[in-house]
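Repro:
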Amino acid sequence: MKELLFLLADLWMIFAGFFFGWKLIRQYGNYLLGLEWIIVATSGSNFLVWSLLGGDEGSILYSIAYFFDAFSRSVGITLILVMGLMRVTHRYKPSWAVDTGVFALAIAVGLYLQQFRGHELHVGPATYYVIVNALTTLFLAYFSWRLWKIRAKGLAIGAALVTAAGTAIALIYDFFPIAGDDEYRTTHYILALGTWGFQLFVYFLSYRALHNHNVATGAEAASNERSVARA
């Protein structure tokens, strides 16, 4: 049963990442969020294949999985997430150079953190992950308040809940392992993958709601395509 739940949780996250990531790019021209969503889905796909093949830590798939995990936990679902959501909270539209630079930073940090790969706790990287997650949570609390302010109360509550769940997962990930979990941490990953999938889903719906509100109030043009001037 646990293996089936793990499979469903991972497939859910993969679907949410690819489907809503493409929508963020296609409908809103938000490459920061769209590409990060797709990267999360790609990470989930690699993790699924690695798990189905036996979960060998000597496999190249494990190295790829660790890289993607470090990529998103350090910069992707932190700095890139905040910058992408600022499109609808502050009408912030970074240049192509900024977009490229922040993804290059995420790649560099992901590669650097490869040296800490393994089951043993590395306090430095683990503490860093918790700190950047906490800072991101502060912005997401503001993001939820913005949703409440435009009377999207259901989404505001949903965004707050998935953010709180994401923060709990970040703490459990390194510092508070689930008692009685197996050696593969299956229960943890069921909760983590399910939570991350719902974060991608709820943040997309919330982004759409704020975008539509901005368009309705004249704060933003209906077309969100990048202008030639930004090139």
